[in-house]
């Protein structure tokens, strides 16, 4: 590829001035005498970007900066209490918190520019309104009503100083560079015929240069987070009635909660180049910067923006009684019912997987990239398809939570207390989980080509392979196009293969819950010294976890090695293509990964004239592919689906502990607390992001990530 650059062949001369023959794949030291790369051979864009890297002081190769991060916060509260009459009180409370932060080095997940000029401005505002009304109906009856509204909004503006506007993001290249290399292409110009093919979908006034990381050297450009505008609103209405009847203190009530969360995710929309030496031709010495100057990146990544409009509603009812059986014995018991509607995206920009179902909302379109007879993503469906709601899963109505507790102080001294309790507690799925659906086809996409060029990030350095570029199609307006099609619009599905899906909700998910229990004994040792020893535990059930429902079939891989005899199938070949020629006599039973009933071809069978074609070794790799005839199999060898990570309430957990503490109240100038916990925690997944064993999720059970066998805390 170097030989195709104008003037490079002539500029690469030996000491006698004779031109050197440039051969692709040769070591840099063999191509460039004295290891000096002529300007004519360098990548124009890579050289132009060096203007963002400050020049170190004379006599030094190190740039040191002392960043200043202004952080301004404004807060105030307003409270109003009004006595309506002798029995009714009204209260109002308002809280305001405003934050304005300027970060000279914008970091996201420990990634960001390490030179000045690529900072960010983050604006955050939090507001809270509370209204409460208390009504003393009579001497033993009180009603309390509360309304609460919270609003949180934030937005991050990256590179506000010089790279957030078009004319600053792509200033003209210097004349000394254009005189040698000609016009220098711009990364992002907001037009369809962008020379470099990077279309961030942010519009022509908000383009910035990509994130460029040179391993062991400098890092410039936008980090992967993007602007991240988001607004969250929560509403809560609650009412409770308390009534005392003899030795019973009764309480009844309920509340309604409404959550609204809107955001736009701009993850990696400007693209990311990683220059790490993996594409270098020279095995000797540090050649990472040589790769950069020549425009050879080890990998490139780009994602697309996605809008989220999340909604959820909860209804909660409860009844409880505190029964004072004796002066030293109290029994508490109650029942709670919870209705948590599944979080739903009203923009319908979510998807799930239902085996065998074909989307009618986004049908397949035959194009130069797609042959729908073999590349239709059978199983990928969206809200509006038959049986698919905005929430993607069912509403669970059986979340009843009984609870009981007892408190007993034996004897008459009042120095000993024994408490025990048990209850069920439900936990709704959080909004964060829905972010796993972001930027997935057909509403978004991401691509990670390896060994590409700066000026052609979707072209392999060999020049013989071009990666699909879903970002170069007409979607710059951000309203429709390949990455945001209108409902009913046919989709070029082949562009996204192999489709990797995260966060697919299963249709019959149930509410998560835990059974919590404890037995605690407290004893007053002296007037200011108390000892407490307790057994505390929790059993989690139907916890949210992730597992791959489209894992590679290990038995098929073993069978292929036995049949082909070359050992070519291994751990990372689930998305590879294999062919068994016709006439082959099977030495073992051959398990097909996808066929009716996952059929097995007995050992000794002679394969028919069509052979066996496997495009991927996963259950749903190529849903239309018939391995025995080859019909419906993608002819380019790229499967339709890769991993399909489903989220389902299938995990469990167990926590048990011995907890002891010794507390001394302040006296004689001394106060201290000592606590010791001996515990053990098991689970299949310590968070919803934990990926379970796909073949048997129960095999994932092990010590929790947060398990701490011994914990001692002392303070005074």
Task: Report what the structure shows.
The chain is mainly β and 716 residues long. Helices cover 7% and strands 40% of the residues. The chain has helices spanning 8-11, 28-31, 44-49, 166-169, 175-181, 288-294, 372-375, 554-564; strands spanning 71-83, 88-103, 120-138, 141-158, 211-214, 219-220, 230-245, 248-265, 272-275, 296-303, 306-326, 329-340, 344-345, 352-353, 380-381, 399-408, 416-427, 446-447, 450-453, 499-505, 512-526, 529-548, 577-580, 590-591, 600-601, 612-615, 641-667, 670-683, 702-703, 710-715. The strands form five sheets. It has an 18-stranded mixed beta sheet that branches. Strands 5, 6, 9, 10, 18 and 19 form a six-stranded mixed beta sheet that branches. It is globular. The N and C termini lie far apart (70 Å). Mean pLDDT is 83; it is low at 160-169, 188-195 and 474-481.
Topology (elements, then pairings):
Layout: H1 8-11, H2 28-31, H3 44-49, E1 71-83, E2 88-103, E3 120-138, E4 141-158, H4 166-169, H5 175-181, E5 211-214, E6 219-220, E7 230-245, E8 248-265, E9 272-275, H6 288-294, E10 296-303, E11 306-326, E12 329-340, E13 344-345, E14 352-353, H7 372-375, E15 380-381, E16 399-408, E17 416-427, E18 446-447, E19 450-453, E20 499-505, E21 512-526, E22 529-548, H8 554-564, E23 577-580, E24 590-591, E25 600-601, E26 612-615, E27 641-667, E28 670-683, E29 702-703, E30 710-715
Parallel strand pairs: 5-9, 20-27
Antiparallel strand pairs: 1-2, 2-3, 3-4, 4-7, 5-6, 7-8, 8-11, 9-10, 10-18, 10-19, 11-12, 11-13, 12-16, 14-15, 16-17, 17-21, 21-22, 22-27, 23-26, 24-25, 27-28, 28-29, 28-30
């Amino acid at each position: 590829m170097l030989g195709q650059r104008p003037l490079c062949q002539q500029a690469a001369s030996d000491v006698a001035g004779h031109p050197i023959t440039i051969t692709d794949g040769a070591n840099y030291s063999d191509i460039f005498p004295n290891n000096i790369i002529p300007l004519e051979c360098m990548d124009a864009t890579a050289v132009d970007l060096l203007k963002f890297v400050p020049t170190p002081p004379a006599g030094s190769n190190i740039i040191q900066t002392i960043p200043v991060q202004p952080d301004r916060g404004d807060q105030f509260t307003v409270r109003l209490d009004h006595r309506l009459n002798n029995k009714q009180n009204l209260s109002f409370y308002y809280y305001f918190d405003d934050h304005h932060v300027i970060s000279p080095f914008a970091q996201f997940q420990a990634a960001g520019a390490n030179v000045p000029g690529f900072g960010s401005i983050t604006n955050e505002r939090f507001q809270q309104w509370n209204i409460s009304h208390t009504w003393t109906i009579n001497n033993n009856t009180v009603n309390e009503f509360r309304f609460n509204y919270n609003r949180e909004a934030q937005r991050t503006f990256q590179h506000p100083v010089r790279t957030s506007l078009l004319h600053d993001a792509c200033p003209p290249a210097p004349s000394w560079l254009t005189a040698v290399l000609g016009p220098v292409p711009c990364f992002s110009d907001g037009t369809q015929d962008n020379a470099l093919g990077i279309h961030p979908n942010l519009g022509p006034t908000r383009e910035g240069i990509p994130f460029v990381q040179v391993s062991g050297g400098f890092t410039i450009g936008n980090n992967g987070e993007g602007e991240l505008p988001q607004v969250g609103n929560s509403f809560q209405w609650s009412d409770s009635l308390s009534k005392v009847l003899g030795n019973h203190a009764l309480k009844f009530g309920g509340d309604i909660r409404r959550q609204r969360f809107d955001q736009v995710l701009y993850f990696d929309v400007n693209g990311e180049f990683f220059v790490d030496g993996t594409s270098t031709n020279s095995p000797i010495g540090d050649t990472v910067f040589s790769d950069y100057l020549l425009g050879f990146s080890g990998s490139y990544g780009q994602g697309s923006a996605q809008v989220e409009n999340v909604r959820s509603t909860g209804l909660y009812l409860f009844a409880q009684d505190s029964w004072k059986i004796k002066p030293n014995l109290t029994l508490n018991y109650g029942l709670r019912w919870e209705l948590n509607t599944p979080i739903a995206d009203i923009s319908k920009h979510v998807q799930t997987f239902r085996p065998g179902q074909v989307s009618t909302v986004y049908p397949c379109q035959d194009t130069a990239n797609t042959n729908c007879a073999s590349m239709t993503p059978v199983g990928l469906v969206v809200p509006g398809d038959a049986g698919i709601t905005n929430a993607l899963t069912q509403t669970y109505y059986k979340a009843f939570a009984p609870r009981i507790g007892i408190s007993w102080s034996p004897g008459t001294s009042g120095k000993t207390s024994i408490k025990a309790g048990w209850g069920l507690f439900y936990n709704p799925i959080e909004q964060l989980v829905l972010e796993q659906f972001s930027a997935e086809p057909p509403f978004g996409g991401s691509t990670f080509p390896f060994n590409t060029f700066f000026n052609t990030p979707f072209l392999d350095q060999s020049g013989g392979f071009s990666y699909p570029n879903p970002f170069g199609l007409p979607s710059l307006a951000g309203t429709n196009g390949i990455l945001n099609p209108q409902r009913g619009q046919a989709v070029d599905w082949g562009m996204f293969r192999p489709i990797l899906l995260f966060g697919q909700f299963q249709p019959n998910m149930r509410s998560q819950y835990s059974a919590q229990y404890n037995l605690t004994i407290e004893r007053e040792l002296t007037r200011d010294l108390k000892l407490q020893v307790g057994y505390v535990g929790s059993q989690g059930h139907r916890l949210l976890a992730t597992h791959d429902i489209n894992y590679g079939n290990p038995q098929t891989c073993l069978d292929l090695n036995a049949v082909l005899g070359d050992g070519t199938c291994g751990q990372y070949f689930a998305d590879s293509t294999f062919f068994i020629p016709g006439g082959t006599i099977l030495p073992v039973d051959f398990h097909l990964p996808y066929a009716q009933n996952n059929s097995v071809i007995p050992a000794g069978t002679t394969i028919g004239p069509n052979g066996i074609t496997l495009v991927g070794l996963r259950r749903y790799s190529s849903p239309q592919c018939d391995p025995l005839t080859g019909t419906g199999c993608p002819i380019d060898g790229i499967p339709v689906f890769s991993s399909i990570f489903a989220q389902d309430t299938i995990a469990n957990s167990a926590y048990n502990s011995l907890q002891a503490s010794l507390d001394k109240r302040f006296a004689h100038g001394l106060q201290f607390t000592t606590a010791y916990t001996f515990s053990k925690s098991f689970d299949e997944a310590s968070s919803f992001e934990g990926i379970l064993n796909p073949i048997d999720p129960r095999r994932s059970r092990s010590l929790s990530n947060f398990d701490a066998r011994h914990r001692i805390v002392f303070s005074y």
